[in-house]
Amino acid sequence: MAFRDFAPFTSSSIQALRYDEGTQVLQVLFNNGGVYEYYGVPARMAEEFERSESKGVFLAANLKGHYRYSRV
User: Fold this and answer.
1) End-to-end CA distance of the chain, in Å?
2) Rounded CA gap, 10 and 68, in Å?
3) Where does residue 2 rank: exposed (0-12), middle (13-18), buried (19+ CB within 10 A)?
4) Contact 38, 17 (CB under 8 A)
5) In sequence order, which residues have a C-beta less than 8 Å from that of residue 12 and are 6 or more positions away?
6) By CB neighbour count within 10 A (0-12 exposed, 13-18 middle, 19+ buried), where does 18 fall?
7) pLDDT digits (tens, 9 = 90+) for 25-38
8) What would the mean pLDDT of 60-70 be, rounded to a whole number?
9) Based on the structure, what is the number of domains in the chain?
10) What is the rounded distance in angstroms from the CA atom of residue 35 to the CA atom of residue 32?
11) Pairwise CA distance, residues 67 & 38, whole Å
12) CA distance 25 to 69
């Protein structure tokens, strides 16, 4: 996979975001060290996540329960 790192941001729960447009995999790196991959995420959704004011709120409202995911 060829992940693209998103620009740095400040979040109380999420450390970083990475996205692979070819496979539509979004990686979410949490401040506690956990890493989750969300599958089938369109580029548009990943970009909205990057621009969101609150990463935690966006994750809960738009990704959890909408896309298959696993801890890596």
Assistant:
1) 14
2) 25
3) exposed
4) no
5) 31, 56
6) middle
7) 999 999 999 999 99
8) 97
9) 1
10) 9
11) 6
12) 9
Angle value at C-alpha 21, between 35 and 19, nearest 5 degrees: 25
Residue of 56, 47, 41 whose CA lies nearest to 10: 56
Tell me the two tokens of residue 44.
Answer: 């548009």
Asked whether residue 1 carries a pLDDT value surpassing 80, the answer given is no
Token pair, residue 21, equals 């447009």
14: containing domain: 4-71
Secondary structure string (H, E, C) spanning the chain = CCCEECCCCCCCCEEEEEEECCCCEEEEEECCCCEEEEECCCHHHHHHHHHCCCHHHHHHHHHCCCCCEEEC
Residue 68's Cβ-side half-sphere holds a number of Cα atoms within 13 Å equal to: 3
